[in-house]
Amino acid sequence: MPVYLTDSSIWIAARRAPRSYPPQLPADRLRRDEMATCVPVAPAQLDRALELLRELAGTTAGAHRRRPIDYVVAACAEAGGEDVVLWHGDSDLTLICDHAGIAHEAEHDRAKAAGLGAEPGGGR
What we know:
Elements: E1 3-6, H1 8-16, H2 24-31, E2 35-36, H3 43-57, H4 68-79, E3 84-88, H5 91-100, E4 104-106, H6 108-113
Parallel strand pairs: 1-2, 1-3, 3-4
């Protein structure tokens, strides 16, 4: 059973759309003891975060221009091993995880189906 490293975008979505689906998902995963969070300040993960940023910088012009914390969260998920899935609603994390081959579950499709826009925490 995977453990879902839960990005802040999930918590933000739950607060912004309390009458839609986002609040129920964290509650369900908490009840099943499937969720984890991280303190993204561990030195080894910061080194990996910088490595990911540099790798993306070399792929296309501007691809690396993401929030620094997203690189750190992705590196923390990667360090958790194969049983950890980064759960998020952030298109920047999708790009970083896809680039690095980090297991992740994005809420984009469910958010769109619920009429919440491209990212569950956002109004777009």
